[in-house]
């Protein structure tokens, strides 16, 4: 570590102050507010609040509906993370085999990333549109009467498909650059030592890709848990009814549609704890197995 | 162990660039062949074609009599040592050594025995549980060699394995490679751009330039009878002096000097003359001397390299550091030590006067090595 000398002991604090201010305003303060209001039953019209202790939490956790949504969220997150990472990796490995350092192709492939995520999301959802969606028409060929927005499983399928579709380019780019950073001579040495390409992938490529994969795992889980809000919102069009939604969407529904600020706060605190636990778990148990160069 | 045959092998890249053209080399079982040449001469490409890491555009490569053009690198029964070691960074030294064997389904006990043997030969026992990043350059290089040895392949392929090491380590590793190869007796192809490495390691040298073979031969033969001006200037340090002269009967006009050869060269007129720096002597007295205008002197301790001009042509002489340099100086050379090359093609011209000294020189038991 390099030690820097400052003329005044307060100077370093001054330098990190802007960063701390942003974190404070946009993270700590809302978190404290959420924790605080999760113990109260708020009047929807702002005429005061009643302290109810942990009953907001008890209500949320005890509700069968909340449990069902939590189960769907777990399945949804697992599927989106697994599929977007898996497909992204498959495409990257295949592209890498063809590229071999040809930067023109690489640039062309990476351009996908330049499409704004909302545009990509919107395009994805149009594929599932009831009237003009080509995927709906395609499914009809096989006798599948897809009713996105009406049928629970059809909606879930579309949600997962669009969420995965949106995330693949991101994973693709990271994995591709991870693959290209594996030294050519190491791959060649492996090619001489091991004939089976599949085996080489598992014993050589994947372990060397682990730092990238670990980073992407965290990013993808966070994406599936939180950033898919937009996809779900367009898909269920603000009226969840009995369509599948994730916990984040439930927080929004209860707080801003149901005007139950206390209950909504309690749910977001629960989510915060889940993320906290997940992060600790990932760094403690997964990162240990990751080899950094 | 196996012989290797390289027949009419060419490498032509997609853009039409020819990296290697019609190369023929026959490598005997157990022989140590060094491919040497400046960068871009195609030596690495040639090695990589033998390894199977590059496709062979034309021609045929055989290992142990089997044509391997379309055989997967893993099935060619070769092991390769790379310039930057190419160790697997996430594996321990033991795992690095065992990886190739494990993938070939070698039994566990056999792997253990072979790794232990290689580790003993290369003095790697204390490091078996370490990861490559915890090793020094020389240790990494030894692991890379160990990875080749444990496989007991038909051939070792070395791609400039020492160029990432510092000068001192390079000399000791050079000795180690030579010793190991003698001991295990495996056919080896070694690529380098360093002529000293080439001279000291090779049973036979292959000098390449522009994708073509300039000369194949034993190191001392190549040194004493370079086939072309390219080989003459590439092999040996300092490089052989190549100057233009003119032949008139049995006399050679070299700048202002006229040297009596005592025999005839089968050509007349303009010719390129090669003079090794160490064959030049300070001349005392008159007759057959080359007036030498000294430019600057490099002191090497054991000898000094004197740079200067003979007429209007640059010349380097390796002289004893004990004899003072007279001013003005003049040099002399035994006519039998002169080399002649065709001015246009650069090909060596053999002549009767040179033959005498060669036998004696070739018999000197690897004094240079």
Automatic annotation (TrEMBL), chain A:
Q: Where are the transmembrane segments?
A: 12-29, 69-93, 105-128, 206-226, 266-286
Location in the cell reads: Cell inner membrane; Cell membrane
Identify the residues that the record assigns to the ABC transmembrane type-1 domain, covering every copy: 70-282
A Pfam family per the record: BPD_transp_1
Q: How does it sit in the membrane?
A: Multi-pass membrane protein
Q: Where does the protein principally reside?
A: membrane
Q: What are the protein's UniProt keywords? A: Cell inner membrane, Cell membrane, Membrane, Transmembrane, Transmembrane helix, Transport
Q: How does it assemble?
A: The complex is composed of two ATP-binding proteins (UgpC), two transmembrane proteins (UgpA and UgpE) and a solute-binding protein (UgpB).
**UniProt function note:** Part of the ABC transporter complex UgpBAEC involved in sn-glycerol-3-phosphate (G3P) import. Probably responsible for the translocation of the substrate across the membrane.
Q: Which PANTHER family match?
A: BLL4140 PROTEIN, SN-GLYCEROL-3-PHOSPHATE TRANSPORT SYSTEM PERMEASE PROTEIN UGPA
Q: Which family does it belong to?
A: Belongs to the binding-protein-dependent transport system permease family.
What is the name of the protein in this document? sn-glycerol-3-phosphate transport system permease protein UgpA
From TrEMBL, chain B:
Q: Which positions fall inside the ABC transporter domain?
A: 4-235
Please give the name of this protein. Sn-glycerol-3-phosphate ABC transporter ATP-binding protein UgpC
Family per similarity comment = Belongs to the ABC transporter superfamily.
Q: SMART domains, from UniProt?
A: AAA (SM00382)
InterPro entries named in the record: AAA+_ATPase, ABC_transporter-like_ATP-bd, ABC_transporter-like_CS, ABC_transpr_MalK-like, ABC_transpr_MalK/UgpC-like, Mo/tungstate-bd_C_term_dom, NA-bd_OB-fold, P-loop_NTPase
The protein's UniProt keywords, in alphabetical order, are: ATP-binding, Cell inner membrane, Cell membrane, Membrane, Nucleotide-binding, Sugar transport, Translocase, Transport
Q: Signal sequence: where?
A: none
Which organism encodes this protein? Shinella curvata
Where, subcellularly, is it found?
Answer: Cell inner membrane
- The answer to keyword Transport applying to this record is yes
Q: Does the keyword Cell membrane apply?
A: yes
| GO MF annotations, alphabetized | ATP binding
The record's section on SUPFAM superfamilies has: MOP-like, P-loop containing nucleoside triphosphate hydrolases
Main localisation: membrane
User: What membrane topology does this protein have?
Assistant: Peripheral membrane protein
